[in-house]
Write a structure and sequence with these properties.
Layout: H1 12-39, H2 42-54, H3 59-66, H4 70-82, E1 86-91, E2 94-99, H5 104-113
Antiparallel strand pairs: 1-2
Helix pairs in contact: 3-4
Pfam family, one: HTH_5
Keywords: DNA-binding, Transcription, Transcription regulation
GO molecular function: DNA binding; DNA-binding transcription factor activity
């Protein structure tokens, strides 16, 4: 059974206002959607969680913790860096990754859900 929308009256003012509202937040929506899309991958979400918890980590540490090869970790980190979710700081020969300041507002509510007192919410 197919249901269709049978609109008797279109509120033109509401439609116009909603279009303007979407235009105002369009860039932010794109940024948030990109962040959530990347964080939607289980491995990358774990990496972001660890980076949030520890402030900064190198690929070798993430490799040891997650039981993955350094090249596999590096590939995930590159995707996160290309999207602007993480940034790097090179100290000697070691590159440390951390969550970009601008993405903390997007990711922090997700990390709050992972805290033990919020387990029942999930």
């Amino acid at each position: 059974m197919t249901k269709t929308c049978i609109r008797v009256y279109a509120d033109e003012q509401q439609i116009k206002q909603c279009k303007q509202d979407i235009e105002k937040v369009d860039e932010a929506i794109i940024r948030i959607a990109r962040a959530l899309n990347l964080a939607g991958n289980e491995v990358r979400l774990k990496m972001l969680f660890l980076l949030d918890k520890e402030s900064k980590m190198c690929p070798c540490d993430l490799s040891d913790i997650l039981g993955m090869t350094v090249p596999a970790i590096s590939q995930h980190l590159r995707k996160l860096k290309d999207a602007g979710l993480v940034e790097t700081n090179k100290v000697g020969q070691t590159i440390f990754y951390s969550i970009s300041e601008s993405n903390n507002l997007i990711l922090n509510p997700i990390f709050k859900l992972l805290e033990p007192e919020n387990e029942s919410v999930l």
